[in-house]
């Protein structure tokens, strides 16, 4: 199979290598000429054989960059060809992109991709949305990218289903990471426990909480005991927010995932206005002591 790949960053570059190892011919395009095989999208399309449907896989940032890439490909590809959006696009963008391409007879597949920088060796979990006909045209690439066992790939449903499934996957990931993080903080603050990293390491085999995330947390703790080199600031990629919004739209209670999302917002505050208000109210109704800010040294410190 010949396939075009747009976007050769951390994920896209490794995906190109994995597909090449499986025997696929990959023509890659990136804005960075040092990693790009061609100088433009049009050159990429020209290098794909004309005797079979042309498949172009897009791995660029969601939103404007993806929209612009799809628009350009709509003018370069033709009847029976397929565009795959493997980035973290919002699922509501997929029908828009599919309709744009359908005007030219071009198919569209949205694909949620999970695996990160480890996917090159371990394979990627792939969640595809689109027609069975279009998914079949991309199947050799799916088979090259997926893990070596029988799991790891699913045709999740119609257009948008792949990105929707990946969105929920990332929402679950938020909650799992938050649970491990809160457990870590409690163990660190309890003087009774002297070997926190070793405790987490002991959970990696035989327990019901073992997971790849736990493996990665243990590695981080072993590399940087106490995590002294990392600031407690966590961004969100957008998919956690989208998951909570979808839960609201479908009236699905989402206690853990929404709490994990809000915890990330808290991490970005040097001082929490909400907790300042809580402290102020406790002082007002109960005379509870409050801690002084650096700007107000005259306020007496709270008694422990």
Automatic annotation (TrEMBL):
Position of the signal peptide: none
GO biological process: D-gluconate metabolic process; pentose-phosphate shunt
Domain of life: Bacteria
Cited SUPFAM superfamilies: 6-phosphogluconate dehydrogenase C-terminal domain-like, NAD(P)-binding Rossmann-fold domains
Domain (6-phosphogluconate dehydrogenase C-terminal): residue spans on this chain: 162-296
Keywords: Gluconate utilization, Oxidoreductase
InterPro entries registered for this protein in UniProt: 6-PGluconate_DH-like_C_sf, 6DGDH_YqeC, 6PGD_dom2, 6PGDH_C, 6PGDH_NADP-bd, 6PGdom_BS, NAD(P)-bd_dom_sf, Pgluconate_DH
GO molecular function: NADP binding; phosphogluconate dehydrogenase (decarboxylating) activity
A Pfam family assignment: NAD_binding_2
Cross-referenced SMART domains: 6PGD
Protein family (similarity comment): Belongs to the 6-phosphogluconate dehydrogenase family.
NCBIfam families for this protein: gnd_rel (TIGR00872), PRK09599.1 (NF007161)
PANTHER family, sorted: 6-PHOSPHOGLUCONATE DEHYDROGENASE
Protein name per UniProt: Decarboxylating 6-phosphogluconate dehydrogenase
């Amino acid at each position: 199979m010949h396939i075009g790949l747009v976007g050769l960053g951390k994920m896209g570059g490794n995906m190109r290598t994995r597909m090449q190892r499986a025997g696929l011919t990959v023509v890659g395009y990136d804005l960075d000429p040092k990693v790009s095989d061609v100088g433009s999208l049009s050159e990429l399309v020209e290098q794909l054989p004309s005797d079979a449907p042309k498949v172009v896989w897009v791995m660029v940032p969601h939103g404007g960059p993806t929209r612009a890439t799809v628009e350009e490909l709509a003018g370069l590809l033709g009847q029976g060809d397929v565009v795959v959006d493997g980035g973290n696009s919002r699922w509501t963008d997929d029908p828009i992109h599919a309709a744009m391409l359908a005007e030219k007879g071009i198919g569209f597949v949205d694909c949620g991709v999970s695996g990160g920088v480890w996917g090159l060796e371990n394979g990627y979990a792939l969640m595809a949305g689109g027609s069975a006909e279009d998914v079949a045209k991309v199947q050799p690439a799916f088979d090259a990218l997926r893990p070596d066992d029988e799991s790891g790939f699913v045709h999740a449903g119609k257009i948008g289903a792949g990105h929707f499934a990946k969105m929920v996957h990332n929402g679950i990931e938020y909650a799992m990471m938050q649970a491990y993080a809160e457990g870590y903080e409690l163990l660190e603050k309890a003087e009774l426990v002297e070997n926190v990293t070793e405790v987490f390491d002991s959970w990696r085999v035989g327990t019901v909480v073992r997971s790849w995330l736990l493996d990665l947390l243990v590695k981080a703790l072993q590399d940087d005991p106490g995590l002294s080199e990392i600031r407690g600031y966590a961004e969100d990629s957008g998919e956690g927010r989208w998951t909570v919004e979808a839960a609201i739209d479908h009236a699905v209670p989402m206690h853990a995932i929404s709490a994990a999302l809000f915890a990330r917002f808290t991490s970005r505050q040097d001082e929490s206005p909400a907790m300042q208000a809580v402290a102020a109210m406790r002082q007002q109704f109960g005379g509870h002591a409050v801690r002084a800010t650096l700007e107000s040294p005259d306020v007496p410190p709270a008694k422990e």
